[in-house]
Amino acid sequence: MTIAALCRCSIVLIVLCMLSACGSFAPSAARSATTQPTGSTKTYGDLVVGFAQIGAESEWRTANTRSLQETANRLGVELKFADGQQQQEKQIQAIRSFIAQRVDVIGISPVVETGWDAVFTEVQQAGIPLILLDRHASVPDSLFSAFIGSDFVQQGRYACQEMVKLLNSQGNIVVLEGTIGSAPTIDRRAGFDECLRDYPQIHVLDRQSGDFIRARGKEVMKALLATHGTRIDALFAQNDDMALGAIEAIEEYGSKPGVDIKIVSIDAVRSAFEAMIAGKLNATIECDPLLGPPFFDTALKLVNNQPIHKWVKSADNIYRQDTASQELPKRQY
Ligand code: AHR
Fold first, then answer.
1. What is this structure's pTM?
2. d(Cα 118, Cα 98) in Å, to the nearest integer?
3. Ligand 1 centroid vs 272 CA: distance in angstroms?
4. Which of 163, 212, 213, 297 minimizes the number of CB atoms within 10 Å of its CB?
5. Is 214 in the pocket of ligand 1 (CB under 6 A)?
C-alpha cells in the first residue's frame, strides 16, 4: 500500500471513529454518554449526583436533606452533598467542585433568586444537567433542565384566605418574612398581597425578615410587639419555625397565641401540628420537603435522555386546628 493510500485509509478510519462516538452523545448528558456504550441505559447505581443545599435553617430544611440522603441510600445513588451554610458563595463553590468532579447531574436549592447566571452557564458548558430543587432562580429557562418544588405564590394566597376567615375580613396583621431575596419570600409575599387587595379592612402594620429561623422569629416578633403592642390582631409567618419562635414571644408578652393573635404559617412540619393541637397556631399551609424521590427520578431520566417535566410541582394542602390531632400521626416530617 502506498503512503498516500495509507493516509486515505487512516482518515476514513478516524472519521468513522468520530462518527460512532458522536452518535452516542446526548447534549444534556454529555459526560454520561462518554462512559456509556451506545444504546445502554443507566440505572440508579451508576449515578453520581452533586447537591448544593442551602443549610439547616429550619425543621423543613432538615426534612428535605434527610429525604435526599435517605432516597440516595435506598436507590444506591452516590450523592455528593454540600452544605451552603446560608451563603450563596459557598453554594457557587460547591457547584464548581461538582463540575470539576464530573458528576452526572447537579442539584441545587438556591438560597436567593439572583446571581446564578455565570455559574449555571459553566454547568451548561460542562454538559451536566442541572436541577433546581425547592427554590427556583431568576435565570433563563435554558440554563436548567428542571425545577422540582411547590408553587410558593399559591401558598401565599392560601395563607391569606385562611387569615381572612380568621379575622372575619378585618384587622391588623404583622408579617414575618423569610430570607431576603429568596424565592419563597418573594413569591409568598406576592400571593398573600394579591389576595389581600380584595380586603381593604385588613391592614399590614409591619413586615420584617426572620430569615426562616425560629430564634430570629422570636426576636423579631418581640420587637414587633414592642412597637405595635395590642394593635396586632394576627401574624402571618412565612414558615412554621418563625411562627413557633413568635409564639414564645407572644406568650412572654402576656398575650395568647392563636386566640389574641391569630397565626397562619407555612410548611406543615410536626411541631406546627403540635402547636395547633395546643391551640397556639391556627393554620399551616403545607410545603412538601420530601423531594428526594422526584429528584433522583428526574436525574435518572435526564442522563438517559428520557422526557421530563420542566416543573415537577408538589401538591400542598391546608391544615387547621380542627383536624390537627387526626393528621399528626400521619405526618412524615
Ligand atoms: O424554600 C422553602 C422554605 O425554606 C421553607 O418554607 C422554609 O422552612 C425553608 O427554610
1. 0.88
2. 15
3. 14
4. 297
5. no
